[in-house]
């Protein structure tokens, strides 16, 4: 079985390495990034999306957003021009669900299967192959792709038809963004009221307010560490996709819209490439305080 992999950035590169380590033969392509480290591990390089697809039985894409996925799969020299009928395309990027459905329809007309399979967990879990993978598509296609997905993630769940994977990812991103904002708001209040943030964290993390987001982000915030992780500009992309999808369905998202404006303000402040934990900096600016460990 030959697996094509297009998009070897922060996430795609370690995911591709895990497939090589699991014994799959890989053909890799990235429009901008070098792939030498992967060819050194045994992968073969290709010169275009079309060529990658022509040499693959299963083709994975891990690209920034909807326009990149459309270009790579449906554009000139794209996957659709090279891929053989009966093959499967798995798009693991976080994109608009409507675009997943559009791409799936175009591929289906050529007899090609499609799954949208975005991930949660970030770079560390991509490296450890412990990503949470949420999949949209047909049961039979999912069943045959599952062994490959399980080499990249520890949780692989079919959530519905094509597009459902990205709907689930949007829900995930709304919850994460609002959770970081809630933590930032609450910790800013506590610090301004004179309580040590480490003490607040220790006291509440095991209670109802505790969360995976709190456990991951508060230690980083207390250290003033805003190195990504997950960049603010990527979270803006995800919330924009959430707002567009929701509005098309007649679903207002008032809290998501509020946090989107905080992210936009941070972008103006030069924080686009900071970790999304930097949401706290917006609150710190508003209240003229800092949520950090007390310095000795
Ligand atoms: P990235 O920008 O590091 O990597 C994307 C890669 O795609 C780049 O190497 C780029 O050169 C390549 N590329 C762009 N357009 C291309 C094209 N037309 N053809 C071929 N290659 C092309 O992004 P990333 O952080 O790896 O994220 C990828 C996806 O995973 C995004 O949708 C992101 O939202 C999602 N995601 C990221 C994280 C994270 O923590 N970084 C976590 C979960 C999900």
3D architecture notes:
The protein is an alpha/beta fold. The protein has two domains: 2-160, 3-Layer(aba) Sandwich (Rossmann fold), CATH 3.40.50; 167-287, N-(1-d-carboxylethyl)-l-norvaline Dehydrogenase, domain 2, CATH 1.10.1040. The protein contains 14 helices and nine strands. Strands 3-2-1-4-5-6 form a six-stranded parallel β-sheet, sandwiched between helices. It has a three-stranded mixed β-sheet with strand order 7-8-9. The protein is elongated and about 65 Å long. The model has no long low-confidence stretch (mean pLDDT 97). Residues 6-12, 30-33, 49, 62-64, 68, 71-72, 93-94, 119-120, 122-123, 230, 234 line the site of nicotinamide-adenine-dinucleotide.
List the helices and strands and how they pair.
Blueprint: E1 2-6, H1 12-21, E2 25-29, H2 36-40, E3 44-45, H3 49-54, E4 58-61, H4 66-74, H5 79-82, E5 88-91, H6 97-108, E6 113-116, E7 119-120, H7 122-128, E8 131-136, H8 139-149, E9 153-160, H9 164-192, H10 197-204, H11 212-222, H12 232-249, H13 254-268, H14 279-287
Parallel strand pairs: 1-2, 1-4, 2-3, 4-5, 5-6, 8-9
Antiparallel strand pairs: 7-8
The protein binds nicotinamide-adenine-dinucleotide.
